[in-house]
Amino acid sequence: MFNIPPVTKILTGLLIAIHLVIFALTNTFEPEALNIAAYFGGFIPAHWSGTEPFYWWTPLSIISFSFLHAGWMHLAFNTLMLVAMGSGLEKSIGIKKYLMIYVGTTLFAAFAHLALYPASTMPIIGASGGISGIFGAMIVVMSQSGPSVDKSRLMPVIIAYIGITVLMGLMGAPDGSSVAWIAHIGGFLAGVGFMMTLLKHQK
Question: 142-184: per-residue pLDDT in tens?
Fold first, then answer.
């Protein structure tokens, strides 16, 4: 933990702390704590498309959904990926650009899901969209060849990621839960696009 850069460390700590609070509430005062948190903090497409009411807290859900997780396996996978990919990206591009990519790709992930499932009343939760964006940005950094990006190295990874993500969407997560696959792809492609734009403006 001491070698993890600051923003990645803070994000990881927040994800774990929030899940611990929900876990504690579930096992003490409120067995439905996670469902309540998912309803108020999860991203529900129907609240944005007009199918369901748009509440005063709905705008917060475009970010709050990324801090909630369905269980320990979901949390463990996302925090491990965040530390693995986020640490490298934060060190490569700095705190400001790193935060821009994480927040931006989280938003893209949510609205990609909204575009495909506008009437869905099922909340999506988890940091996977933003983490997918970090991964997308990181593979662009790793594909740099001098001042430009080697697209012959980049494209096979993009195609493989999309294929694997669609397959996961069809099969579901290892714990049996559904996977918001289009949100992952939306965040990932946004990360690729943001990073290529940043590199272009650095020239």
Answer: 887 666 777 778 889 899 999 988 887 777 666 556 778 899 9
Q: Where are the alpha helices (DSSP H) in the chain?
A: 6-26, 33-41, 45-49, 61-64, 72-81, 87-93, 95-116, 128-142, 151-171, 181-202
> How many whole angstroms separate alpha carbon 22 and alpha carbon 28?
10
pTM, full prediction: 0.91
Instruction: Identify the burial level of 193 via C-beta atoms within 10 angstroms of its C-beta, where 0-12 means exposed, 13-18 middle and 19 or more buried.
Output: middle
Give yes or no for residue 44 having a pLDDT over 70.
yes
Query: Which residue shows structure tokens 């609070």?
Result: 21
At 175, give phi and psi (nearest 5°): -85, 5
> What is the SS3 assignment for 43?
strand
Q: What is the CATH number of domain 6-202?
A: 1.20.1540.10
